Amino acid sequence: MDLDIFSDIESEVRGYIRSFPVIFERAVGSTMIDQDGTEYIDFFSGAGALNYGHNNPLMKQALLDYIGNDSISHSLDMATVAKKGFLEAMKTVILEPRGLDYKLQFTGPTGTNAVEAALKIARLATGRSTVVAFTRAFHGVSGGSLAATANQHFRQAAGYSLDDVVFVPFEGYFPGLDTLAYLEQLLGDQSSGLELPAAVIVESIQAEGGINVASPEWLRGLSELCARHGILLIVDDIQVGAGRTGEFFSFEAAGIVPDIVTLSKSLSGYGLPMSLVLMKRELDVWKPGAHSGTFRGNNMAFVCATVAIDTYWKDDALTTDVHRKGAIVRERLAAIAALHPEAQFEVRGRGFIFGFASTKMPELANAIAHEAFLRGLIVETSGPSDEVLKLLPALIMDDATLLRGLDVIAASVEAALKA
Fold first, then answer.
1. Domain of 334?
2. Same-domain check for residues 86 and 203
3. Which residues neighbour 375 within 8 Å (Cβ) at sequence distance 6 or greater?
4. What is the pairing mode between strands 260-263 and 275-280?
5. Which of 17, 184, 259, 265 is spaced 20 to 30 Å from 376 by Cα?
């Protein structure tokens, strides 16, 4: 397979092509097919952007109909039929049943744009500049969001100082440390060096950070801490929202209502660029045009997102199925770990996002991912040193495909350990 054109004129910044060095041509559901006709089971889902699989037939038909009717594709923030449909679906299907009264801001076109807007909102609304983020956090790689991203691999590429963000330990970062008590102590001590922040930004599951799962109790404690001190709570739900944990929002299990929420990735349903900020009404302090973006009106994304909401979120059937299949994955990974006690594997995750990591041999994750690709499975790694195998199957993947993929992981673990 000739990949020379990519290495010849595409930047060295390219990443995933190095892990999956084939030319992909087609994709259906949870199967990707390369130019030579080789099929791969997809446990990657576009880094979480394809929760409903590739070329979901319901969304595809709606999109074809929309384009065939010469409907609006690009509209900035003008009113369109497609945007109206999406807003109505979000209000009646997602927000109102959950008792959420958010205003919606369309940013574009990717997740980091939503984080940038959320941080600006918090600073505008409070008049303060400091933001608290957490160890191993990932919030994007543009200026403001990169400042709240902990990984040095990304931070060192900035080329300038990243300011106004203070990092504190995420739950479990230091075993035995009450990280919320630590933050409370910093906030209450006028000599701690931490000024009263505008916001705390958190992922309920740190996906890029290694599948670090915050407990519902910790999230509730964080929400209460922020409320006591008048700090806004931003939940970054870009990768683990839109159903990845089973519920539409990842924070639902904790019973909290963040002040600001960011969404992207699988929000559009079809893998089309779309980002969104949800904010409590009193935080909508923008002046008209104060934050803009040429591609914040992706009407084709609105069409597919509306189909996704109307198809999968009008009842709890998908949520129930995600939790059922998540239990299958957890049980199978635990069984694989039990077969190889010498590697000291641990299983992390919630809903339908899982991490599988050897605490004794961190290099195994990349080796397993490589062996899996050779056997027809696409799966990535995450964590500070890529030490965690990261599973992101489509939420609607059928059981047979899921089990075949898990069989590949089992065989790949065997091969990696033998090597």
1. 4-56+316-418
2. yes
3. 408, 411, 412
4. antiparallel
5. 265
Nearest partner of 148 among 160, 161, 137, 159, judged by Cα? 137
CATH number at residue 342: 3.90.1150.10
- Residue from 258, 161, 247, 142 nearest 203 by CA: 258
Q: Of 312, 345, 376, which residue constitutes the final position of a domain?
A: 312
Segments of 136-213 assigned E as strands: 165-168, 199-202, 205-206, 212-213
The DSSP secondary structure of 61-122, one letter per residue, reads HHHHHHHHTT---B-TT---HHHHHHHHHIIIIIIGGGT--EEEEEE-SSHHHHHHHHHHHH
Boundary-marking domain end, from 259, 277, 312: 312
Domain count, the chain: 2
Query: Quick one: tokens of 340?
Result: 């190889």
What is the full per-residue pLDDT of the chain (419 aa) written as tens digits?
689 999 999 999 998 999 999 999 999 999 999 999 999 999 999 999 999 999 999 999 999 999 999 999 999 999 999 999 999 999 999 999 999 999 999 998 999 999 999 999 999 999 999 999 999 999 999 999 999 999 898 999 888 888 899 999 999 999 999 999 999 999 999 999 999 999 999 999 999 999 999 999 999 999 999 999 999 999 999 999 999 999 999 999 999 999 999 999 999 999 999 999 999 999 999 999 999 999 998 999 999 999 999 999 999 999 999 999 999 999 999 999 999 999 999 999 999 999 999 999 999 999 999 999 999 999 999 999 999 999 999 999 999 999 999 999 999 999 999 98
Please tell me the distance from the alpha carbon of residue 141 to that of residue 112, in angstroms, as a whole number.
7
* CA–CA separation, 95 and 46 (whole Å): 26
DSSP labels, 343-390? G-EEEEEETTEEEEEESS-TTHHHHHHHHHHHTTEE-EEESTTS-EEE
